[in-house]
Amino acid sequence: MKKMNLTGVLSVLVAVVAMMTPSAYAQTVVFSDPIEGGVGTGSFTGATVGSWGGGQTVYTDDDLSGASTPGPTTAADGDTYIERMRAGGSVPSGGFNSDGNGEAQGGGNGIDLDLTPNGGQPYDSGILDVQFKYWIPTGAVGDYNSILMSNSQGASKASPSQTLATTYIIATAGSAGNNWRDDVPTIGGAGAGSDVFRGQWTTFDLSLNLDTDSYTLTTTPTTGDPSVGTYDMVRDTSVSAMNWRGEAKGRGHYIDGPFTVTWIPEPTSLVLLTMASLGLLIVRRRR
Into how many domains does the chain fold? Predict the structure, then answer.
């Protein structure tokens, strides 16, 4: 039998790796919503991928710059955005829900990711990249808000003490009041990270690595330089949802799009093992 030359072996290697690396390994959008729609309409139908879970979510176009706790003058992108507020407490007059269109009810509203690309299972490997825009008020209403990833879909979202992959909380004490930080394991936990940039629309860009149990959060304000924080995950668990919590009554903030969550699967170790094996075969044939 004629021996296969080096070029032939390399050709086989490329073909095998190509067959073992399906298109699923390319990045896949698992949630998408431009957050654009008629004022007062629910964004349950606004998501083109994934869905909104939890409490009611509606669009608003309020100019809240004159509120007692000033909010945005307009949307960050397009014409509409979302108000989020935990019911109860002291809601500033002229602020959240000023015309009945803002959404503020409940502490655990959020989104459910499309699990189809992962065979209907929560994501437990690869990278989840999350991007949207937020406005955090400068007053007390902006304190003690959190954004978290969890494995709890539907109307009942996990609380910060349950099944979280990670959580970020704005604290009131000291310099941590202006930073996103880990909740490790309670609201009094230490550790400051990315700047919050209160009082302006800011891009939230989270890269959550489910293989290394770590993440990077980049916040980019409308005015100013980006801030980057790196964190370890609070708990090692799979992810199927993302939600927002006002950790105290009367706490809230604003959200705008484009809002996307992208899943980037890890290349299978079998591909790497096959490449190594074929490489060894090349060495042996050359000898």
Answer: 1
Q: Please classify residue 283 by burial: count the beta carbons closer than 10 Å to its beta carbon, then call 0-12 exposed, 13-18 middle and 19+ buried.
A: exposed
Q: Which residues pair with 204 in a beta bridge?
A: 132, 219
Give domain status of residue 66, yes or no.
yes
**CA–CA separation, 247 vs 268, rounded Å?**
39
Residue 118 domain-assigned (yes or no):
yes
Q: How far apart are CA 245 and CA 39, in angstroms?
A: 23
| Cβ within 8 Å of residue 279, ≥6 positions away | 13
Structure tokens at 36: 């654009």
Three-state secondary structure call for residue 83: strand
Q: Taking phi first (over 0 means left), then psi (-120 to 50 degrees means alpha), and beta for anything else, what does residue 94 get?
A: left
DSSP assignment, residue 120? T
Torsion of CA 243, 219, 187, 57, to 10 degrees: -20
Span 7-59, pLDDT tens digits: 565 555 555 545 544 444 579 999 998 988 777 665 555 788 998 875 556 77
pLDDT in tens, 139-170: 777 887 778 788 877 654 544 444 555 667 77
Helix (H/G/I), strand (E/B), else coil: 273: helix
CATH of the domain at 136: 2.60.120.560
